[in-house]
Amino acid sequence: MKPKLLFSLFAIAIMLMAALPTQAQKNEAYVVVSDNGATLTFYYDMQKSNRKGTVYSIDATVHEGMYPAWAGTTEVPNSQITMAVFDTSFKKYRPKETRCWFYNCRTLKEIKGIENLNTSEVTNMGDTFYGCTALTSLNLSKFNTENVTNMQRMFMHCIALTALDLSSFNTKNVTNMRHMFFNCKALSSLNLSSFNTKNVRNMSSMFSVCANMTSINVSNFNTENVTDMEEMFMSCTKLTSLNLSNFNTAKVTRMGNMFRACSNLTALDLSSFNTANTINMGEMFNECQNLTSLNLSSFNTTNVTSMANMFRGCSSLKSLDLSNFNTAKVGFMDNMFDGCISLTTLNISSFNTKEVIHMRSMFRNCKKLTSLDLTNFNTKGTVSFSEMFSHCESLTTIYCNDAWNCSTAKDMFSFCEKLKGAVAYDKNKTDGSMANPDTGYFTRKTPSGISAGMSSNNATVRTIYSVNGKKQKELQRGVNIVRMSDGTTRKVVK
User: Fold this and answer.
1) 374 exposed, middle or buried (CB, 10 Å; 0-12, 13-18, 19+)?
2) Which pLDDT score is estimated for 448?
3) Residue 77: Cβ-neighbour burial (10 angstroms; 0-12, 13-18, 19+)
4) Domain locations in the chain?
5) What is the four-CA torsion angle of 350, 355, 357, 360, rounded to 10 degrees?
6) Where are the alpha helices (DSSP H) in 20-73?
7) Helix (H, G, I), strand (E, B), or coil: what is residue 406?
8) Segment 111-159, tens digit of pLDDT
9) Does residue 156 come out as left (phi exceeding 0), alpha (psi in the -120 to 50 range) or beta?
10) How does 103-125 read in b/e, with b if 16+ C-beta sit within 10 Å?
11) What's the sign of the alpha-carbon dihedral 108, 112, 115, 118?
């Protein structure tokens, strides 16, 4: 064979081989944004190079991998995409995550072919539909979620969502449901009957601002491993009842704002709550303005450090018995009972306040309280007292044996017209200098003492207990329970 002919045949062979890879190419997952920016289409095929529009690899990201290249970001929302389509070819693709796939796509109204999204290998669904403020319905009944561990913020800020089908969700491996339905304020109901929450550790803000829900059925929830319930039901303003009798809260450390602004709740049974490990109860019932009864007798507050704003604005509560509260570690009590305008009785005689830094506005606007026993209060470390008793219009007596170091506390006793202690009330003297039992508005509560009429028929003291039932060697400052030799039991204040 001649060299020229051989060379020609070789060249043809090379050309034919070059054409073969097109047929041998593997399918590729990618996303196409239409030229007008309105449609987002997901493909899994070999046609990537032939597609019109802006084409992104399925793994393309921006902001150092934080967001998919086709979606929005926190700083710059996507305000063009109105429709997302999953092509039938996408059925064969197995993504490992769908994190932020539609993040802040604020004009997205419709998702077609979502049944073509195979989620059998997905482990992370966090933020998938975050900020999809125009979406009105989502049917995710075909989703396979058995391998998902993260669902945090999955539907957060889906403010127009009225229908959400999660009936097939298997959540047995999910550990994080933080902010999952946050601000889904148009949703009126949720079917969570398939949820297995045994491994969930974080439920903070899970239903926050679900303002249109009248009920949330969480009776099947297993919360034995949950550590954070902060803001869990906050601002569920239409919620009229809530059954949490099955909740295991033994590991929960954070309950701050848990029921804040649940303004239509009239009662809460938290008798099953184990709060032994809870450190934060700040604003827990803040603005629960229709709450008429609250039984907290089972609460163990040994480790709680904040009770700030805890009952603020609970304007329908008439009585509160907190005699079982251990406040030895609490540093914040500011605004704790502020706005409890219907409160007529308040038992806080056992409060240990030696670590409390802030008492500002603690009892402000408790308009129906007539007396307060603060004989057990220790305010040596407290720095703020301003408006502490302000607008306690019915208050006549504040029992306290000690003078408090709070002379600079502004308006501490303002509008307490009926208050009388060592001296009568003077509207021109309302600062902290009047917080004493000698020349101010406090009333000294003389220690009862055993010698002061405590015994009868020559009865003697047998046993001394704290109000929590702890046996004491001697009388302690505050309220003591004393068992006498004649079988009687006496309450002794020292």
Assistant:
1) buried
2) 47
3) middle
4) 446-494
5) 0
6) 21-24
7) coil
8) 999 999 999 999 999 999 999 999 999 999 999 999 999 999 999 999 9
9) beta
10) bbbbbbeebeebebbbbeebbbb
11) negative
What does pTM read for this prediction? Answer: 0.85
CA distances, 404 to each of 128, 334, 384 (Å): 55, 17, 11
Q: How many Cα atoms sit within 13 Å of 158 on the Cβ side? A: 28
Instruction: Dump strand ranges (E) for 323-418.
Output: 345-347, 371-373, 397-399
User: For residue 274, what are the CA distances in angstroms to 98, 203, 292?
Assistant: 36, 16, 22
Measured over the CA atoms of residue 324, residue 325, residue 329 and residue 331, the dihedral's sign is negative
Would you say the C-alpha torsion 170, 172, 173, 174 has a positive or negative sign?
A: positive
User: How far apart are the C-alpha atoms of 222 and 443, rounded to whole Å?
Assistant: 50
Query: Cα(430)–Cα(179) distance, rounded to whole angstroms?
Result: 44
Q: Are 206 and 156 in contact (CB under 8 A)?
A: no
- The answer to whether 256 touches 229, Cβ cutoff 8 Å, is no
Tokens linked to 277: 């490990």
- 205-to-76, 176, 180 alpha-carbon distances in Å: 24, 11, 8
Residue from 76, 70, 68, 34 nearest 51 by CA: 34
Residue 285 near residue 255, CB atoms below 8 Å: no
Q: Are strands 471-472 and 461-466 parallel, antiparallel or unpaired?
A: antiparallel
Contacts of 72 (CB under 8 A, 6+ apart): 78, 79, 103, 104, 105, 106, 131
Measured distance CA(100)–CA(156) in Å, rounded:
11
- Measure the N-to-C terminal CA separation of the chain; round to a whole number of Å: 120
DSSP-assigned letters across all residues of 176-191: B-TTTTTT-TT-----
The confidence score (pLDDT) of residue 175 equals 98
pLDDT of residue 476: 82
Which residues pair with residue 365 across a beta bridge?
A: none
Q: Which stretches of 286-410 are assigned E, i.e. beta strand? A: 293-295, 319-321, 345-347, 371-373, 397-399
Split at pLDDT 50, 70, 90, the class of 467 is: low
The single-letter DSSP state of residue 27 is P
Instruction: Work out the pLDDT band at 490, boundaries 50, 70, 90.
Output: confident
Supply 83's token pair: 């429709």
Q: Average of pLDDT values for 51-65?
A: 97
* Res 249 pLDDT > 90: yes
Query: Of 350, 430, 435, nearest to 398 (Cα)?
Result: 435
The pLDDT score that the predictor gives to residue 452 is 36
Q: How far is CA 161 from CA 133, 142, 214, 221, in A?
A: 8, 18, 16, 23
How many CB atoms are located within 10 Å of the residue 83 CB? 15
